[in-house]
Amino acid sequence: LNWDHSPDVKEDDNAHYVILKRDTSTATWFTAAEKVYNNKYTVTGLLPGRKYFFRVIARNDIGDSDPLDSKDSWYIEKDIELFHAKMKEYHEKDWSHAPHFITLLKNHLVCRGHDCTMSCAFLGNPRPEVTLYKGEVNITAHSKFWYNSTSGVCTLMIPTCTAKDSGEYSILIENQLGKQKCSCTLTVYEKDDRSLLDTVIGSLQKSKHLM
Predict the structure, then answer these.
(1) Which one of 43, 105, 136, 163 is most buried, counting C-beta atoms within 10 A?
(2) Locate the Fibronectin type-III domain: which residues (predicted)?
(3) d(CA 158, CA 49)
(4) Tens digits of residue pLDDT in 25-69
């Protein structure tokens, strides 16, 4: 701040200046400095991003002079902070892996005329291609069977089973990194054929298959 000297300050050894400051958001004046004997002063402690008015008063033992106010507000510039961050070099992880089953097919015992639904779950990246077999025959596109493969779960549905549908069913999953196959057995029995039913149940229990 700069202002013209008051004649009283020049002639009176006890005379001095008082510097006041006021934020534009308030009407209250605050003392920024006292006992200033020069007509120049650097005000400190101002907040960046705020606007201020300043007032200078000459003071001696008798009292204060009329205030000298700044005509315009003073804007305190914000310091630009430079942020530096050292980032580690990013290496994209290779999530590719060969397909493998996490839930296998289970053997099924179905009464003739009923539907049979069998399913399994698998993982693999890239997404494996699914192929269905009955024995050695590819049945993926066979109109008799319905199948769906979504989000790693493959479901095969055989409607209205007959004795001809009995046999081994397999699901092959394959991508560029490998392949895997799982199988199960479907047995279709007649409603009144208790001997076959008892034989199959006994066999399944011995092999610890869940019905």
Answers:
(1) 105
(2) 1-79
(3) 75
(4) 888 999 998 888 888 888 888 888 889 999 998 888 888 888 888
